[in-house]
Amino acid sequence: MNSSTQNKRKSIITGAALQLISLYGLPGLTVKNISALTGLSTPIIYNSVGGQDQIIIAILDHFKSRIENTFSQALANQNGSIDKIEAILKNHYRTLSDVPSFVTLIFSDELYDKSDELKKKMDELIALNNSVILGLIMEGQKSGEIRTDMDSQHLSAITLASFRKIMKQLQ
Asked: CB–CB of 76/138 below 8 Å?
């Protein structure tokens, strides 16, 4: 099978997985349900992507690439730290609003209980977001754009926790 067919199947499978998460939450995400939704046999799904954890990892990798693009655009197209942070959070909001099942998946505490591999992938996403936001806050503090009477780590944690809370409420 060529890589084009493999990528197409992977896209179909992850798209179906996002649909199932949107409709039924994480408990509805099973290879059997993906098979029923896509018409692909379970062996094809396992050969194309893998089991449930690998499907979730493929979705998280897709989300990670989207946010990396967001970071690149915000850092290139905005001037001040606050404008960059705002652009990043607005884009995250749009992405998560466009694909609500991302919210269910990304802000799920259940993923931490499933496997070490999923926990590691979630930790990577959190660290990526935190490092970019933290770097922008530190940059803003140096330039006088952001207050310095609070630790940059705390400001980053407050920013990301507030964003998470807003997204969870909209879920």
From this structure: no
Four-CA torsion 143, 144, 147, 152, nearest 10 degrees: 10
pLDDT reading at 113 higher than 80? no
Higher pLDDT, 31 or 101: 31
SS3 annotation, the chain: CCHHHHHHHHHHHHHHHHHHHHHHCHHHCCHHHHHHHHCCCHHHHHHHCCCHHHHHHHHHHHHHHHHHHHHHHHHHHCCCHHHHHHHHHHHHHHHHHHCHHHHHHHCCCHHHHHCHHHHHHHHHHHHHHHHHHHHHHHHHHHHCCCCCCCCHHHHHHHHHHHHHHHHHHHC
pLDDT at 171 over 70: no
Instruction: Report the predicted TM-score, pTM, of the whole model to 2 decimal places.
Output: 0.83
The pLDDT > 70 percentage for the chain reads 98
Residue where the block lists tokens 């991302």 = 102
